[in-house]
Write a structure and sequence with these properties.
The structure is a homodimer of 206-residue chains. The first copy, chain A, has 206 residues and is mainly α. Chain A has 11 helices and no strands. The interface between A and B is medium-sized, with 31 and 31 residues. The structure holds a DNA duplex (30 and 30 nucleotides).
DNA sequence: TTCAAAATATGAACAATGTTCATATTTTAT
DNA sequence: ATAAAATATGAACATTGTTCATATTTTGAA
């Protein structure tokens, strides 16, 4: 169909350029989400920040949802770095798990629009999106995995206990965040933080 | 300013008529939310179902959000009836609290758009909306209040324990629902129901 | 270097959204 | 019956995501 000097080379060049273009749009999307927030996010605002027309966006993404959810991995990376920095000096095991869970929640309080993308924004049904959902739902577990394994090895928890705890922590923190960010419950940040900590600690105590 | 035959009578008539009009729109909104769902909800679809022009809606509500959140009380009433019917024959106390919490969650699984209105749809900041947030955030507590009091009287729980449990149940169930409804986690309804039950039971065991 | 073809970027246009407003219609009270 | 007040309404607007024909740029061979 196409004639190339060197198939592989040309393909790579094309892909590199295409990825670069995608990255401009992804970067713009992330900046808007972290800055002005999701209510300022639109096809046109993204394209403007990226330095292209809104129509150009559609040459690289099938729709704006695809673009938005391509940010998930980057935000997870950033969140992971935030959490690791906050917990790096703590003693291993239970203490570190608690601190990890708290930092994880703090990240979303800092970037409510990232919480929206992760948990609220609707994902159209597709096998690709099922993977993204999975990535999001199991993210806290991933953050804690190493410490959980440490606890299992140390026999302070059984494998089964850990499985239950991580599920509960995940649901609990998601709910605490949703109520705080969307329903102003509790209305005071201090109360929120206190409640977050005490509920996480209680979950770990079984 | 205005001249009336009988001040009180005329005011009442006007108010009755106005409330009737509001109810037509509220009823239409509830029907769409429970039927086609929130993605089918628009100013125009509401007005069509109510039998009026979309512009008429703005003579009775300052915006569509006001109308949407006026449905909250009705949905809470309906949810309460659903829960009471599901739990009416159960023995009082802990068992009934657990069943109440499960039924509460089931109601939202049955009507995901009601969950959206309750927990996801953004409320513009106002003192009126703060009350609605409060109503939503404390709804599960209200549903369980009688049984909690029964437990306290029976001395199976202290006042302080109950306060902590209700807060935890509320956050936990909100999170379980959000992950299931929005992130398909877990993907199987049976797993969801099992997880819901086991986490509620664990929360009650302290 | 030149030029045709392929690739890419873009604005016009569309449908759907919430909202406002001037005006048409209906209701009210005398 | 009629003037005035109340109410209902469609036209219009701004904003949204998306599509598409076309303008522009890039590419590769002569």
């Amino acid at each position: 169909m196409f004639i190339f000097y060197n198939d592989v080379y040309v393909m790579n060049r094309k892909e590199i350029q295409e990825q670069r273009m995608k990255d401009y749009f992804i970067q713009a999307t992330k900046e808007i989400l972290k800055g002005e927030g999701i209510q300022a996010l639109s096809v046109r605002s993204i394209a403007e920040k990226a330095g292209y027309s809104f129509a150009t966006l559609y040459n690289y993404f099938k729709d704006v949802k695809e673009l938005i959810f391509l940010c998930v991995k980057d935000f997870q990376q950033e969140c992971q770095e935030y959490v690791e920095d906050k917990t790096k000096d703590l003693q291993r095991g239970e203490k570190k798990i608690i601190a990890t869970a708290i930092s994880y929640a703090e990240y979303f309080v800092q970037y409510p629009s990232v919480f929206e993308i992760f948990f609220i924004e609707k994902l159209p049904n597709s096998t690709e999106n099922a993977k993204i959902s999975e990535l999001i739902s199991s993210f806290l577990e991933k953050l804690c995995q190493e410490e959980f394994q440490y606890c299992i090895d140390k026999k302070s928890f059984t494998d089964e206990e850990i499985r239950e705890i991580v599920k509960e922590l995940n649901c609990l923190i998601t709910g605490i965040l949703l109520l705080y960010l969307n329903r102003n419950y509790p209305s005071d940040y201090g109360d929120f933080a206190k409640n977050l900590k005490s509920q996480i600690e209680k979950t770990m105590k079984k």
